[in-house]
Amino acid sequence: MVTTEFRIPGSVAIVTGSSSGIGKRIAEQFAADGIDTVVCSREQGNVDPVANEINESDRPGRALPIECDVRDEASVESMVERTVEEFGGLDILVNNAGAAFMVEFDEMSRNAWDTILDINLNGVFNCTHAASDALKDGGGSVVNVSSVRGQEASPNETHYGAAKAAVENFTKSLAHEWAEDDVRVNCVAPGFIATKSAVSAGDVDPAGIDRSAVDRRIGRVEEIADVVEFLVSDAASFVIGEVLTVRGVPTHSEKPER
Ligand SMILES: NC(=O)c1ccc[n+]([C@@H]2O[C@H](COP(=O)([O-])OP(=O)(O)OC[C@H]3O[C@@H](n4cnc5c(N)ncnc54)[C@H](OP(=O)(O)O)[C@@H]3O)[C@@H](O)[C@H]2O)c1
User: Fold this and answer.
1) How large is the average pLDDT for residues 207-229?
2) Rg of the chain over CA atoms, in angstroms?
3) 150 ligand 1 Cβ < 6 A
4) Are 41 and 47 in contact (CB under 8 A)?
């Protein structure tokens, strides 16, 4: 962890969507804290370099690169099986894989709707379901990655906003069900974070929204990874079923007059 050190119980994690962006940073930080981490995405060629870099560094945790599409139940089940085989168990699941693109609702095809719900919502179901037994075997932790877009109006991303809102409610409900199994379920909802995909969409997009005009500082990947590490650590033992919104403050906000 970059800023503060907390004890993280357990030693094996899966971070979905960790070939780039926020997920990659979470995997790197987990490995730096001695956690054996599965680096997963749809392309073996995208996860291999991330895992190699971790394994060739002096980070004490090992990285295992696995090609897995979170939309595909069989692919997810096989990833969980391999994780348990290679690392001896599973303590932490970070449901980070996600994708978005902008399209007005009237132009949105059914396929576009299904694709975004499949990755961002059904992927969370598939991974959490497949990891259930392993996580309950000794007590574990799940962190879902939603978005502020799931909490407020999300014009031209109605599919993405709906999926992320559902992930937040899923987090709260499952946390109650799994509390008796000693598995904590929480969620982090980032604002705009400087990842390659987010920044490349940061110019004027096809829907005409100038996303460079956001009135908040753009966050850094480590500012989300640190919060995820807090949520899976002992320091968050009393944090259950919560959604932590992480978005800084408006840069133009003025202090209220006294
Ligand atoms: N960046 C932001 O401003 C922001 C704000 C709020 C929330 N978020 C959320 O944060 C998470 C990470 O976003 P990011 O900005 O870091 O994006 P990113 O850099 O595009 O990373 C997305 C990751 O997900 C993987 N992925 C995509 N579809 C997948 C699938 N079907 N199965 C498995 N892996 C898949 C990608 O790898 P491959 O292409 O190699 O498969 C990649 O590793 C997402 O859930 C996103 O919605 C981001």
Assistant:
1) 79
2) 18
3) no
4) yes
Which one is the CATH code of 12-246: 1.10.8.60, 3.40.50.720, 3.90.380.10, 1.10.10.10? 3.40.50.720
pTM for the model stands at: 0.94
Rounded average pLDDT over 92-114: 98
Give per-residue pLDDT as tens, 45-54.
999 999 999 9
Whose Cα sits closest to atom 46 in ligand 1? 98
21 in contact with ligand 1, CB cutoff 6 A: yes
Instruction: Provide φ and ψ at 128, rounded to 5°.
Output: -65, -40
Burial of 66 (0-12, 13-18, 19+ CB in 10 A): buried
Query: Tens digit of pLDDT for each residue in 153-174?
Result: 999 999 999 999 999 999 999 9
- SS3 of 75-135: the string is HHHHHHHHHHHHHCCCCEEEECCCCCCCCCHHHCCHHHHHHHHHHHHHHHHHHHHHHHHHH
Q: Which two tokens stand for residue 98?
A: 């996600």
Question: Does residue 96 line the site of ligand 1, with CB under 6 A?
Answer: yes
Please report the atom of ligand 1 found closest to the CA of residue 41: 34
* Residue pair 90/80 in contact by the 8 Å Cβ criterion: yes
pLDDT reading at 151 higher than 70? yes
Nearest CA to ligand 1 atom 19: 21
